[in-house]
Amino acid sequence: MLQPHRDTHYTYADYCAWDDGKRWELINGVAYAMCPAPSYDHQRIIVKLTIQLGMFLKGKPCKLLIAPFDVRLNSDDEDDTVVQPDLVVVCDSAKLDKNGCKGAPDFIIEILSPSTARHDRWLKYNLYKNAGVREFWIVDPDTKTVSVNVLKDGDYIGKAYGDTDIVPAAVLPGCEIDLRDVFGA
User: Fold this and answer.
1) Number of structural domains the chain divides into
2) Containing H/E element for 17?
3) How far apart are the first and last CA of the chain?
4) Element (H, E) at 183
């Protein structure tokens, strides 16, 4: 059984060979173990976001995908960055293949967990910005807030929303997510 080590630089080809039964992400060649199953709140929020986004996207060309789903940000087998965001929207079907997404998705949502908050807020924020992800949301179940980051001229412009707000998805014109439903019981 092959198992990754933190002091080795890995590629997507290495990642595909791991068979230890765990979920991993690669960021700039460094392997990060994914946490065990997400909390109830985390899963509940994923379901509520999926329902709202799914209803909006029904009959449209963009595809909504849910973790675990590999996103290879640099889009080749030598890529050293593979992430598994909680929710992904891809509008260019040429980026989708049998293994996941090759290249930057249009829209990514990460739902914070205590063990991943720093990783998602800093490391993935910069990773997604540099890869050209057009919109990146960070959902915090504890504070019931959403940080929306929209890419403009190579940098994210951010705006925060609370649990009673309705949030427009900039890359999906006409799509609005009702946070009362997302954070409600």
Assistant:
1) 1
2) helix 12-17
3) 42
4) helix 179-183
- Please state, in angstroms and rounded to a whole number, the distance separating the CA atoms of residues 99 and 116: 24
- Residue 146, helix vs strand vs coil: strand
3-state SS track over 87-112: EEEECCHHHEECCEEECCCCEEEEEC
Judge whether 103 lies within some domain: yes
Q: Quick one: tokens of 20?
A: 């230890």
Residue 140 lies in a domain: yes
Is residue 64 within 8 Å of 177, Cβ to Cβ?
A: no
CATH classification at residue 159: 3.90.1570.10
Q: Does 4 reside within a domain? A: no
Confidence class of residue 1 from pLDDT cuts 50, 70 and 90?
very low
> Model confidence over 124-153: pLDDT tens digits?
899 999 999 999 999 999 999 999 999 999
Long-range pairs for 36-41: beta carbons < 8 A, 24 or more residues apart: 38/111, 38/113, 39/113, 39/141, 41/141
Domain coverage including residue 82: 38-183
Q: List b or e across 49-62, with b for residues whose CB sees 16 or more CB atoms inside 10 angstroms.
A: bbebbeebbeeeeb
Whole-Å CA distances, 163 to 9, 180, 182: 41, 6, 8
Specify the pTM: 0.84
Q: Which helix (H) or strand (E) holds 154?
A: none
Residue 135 belongs to a domain: yes
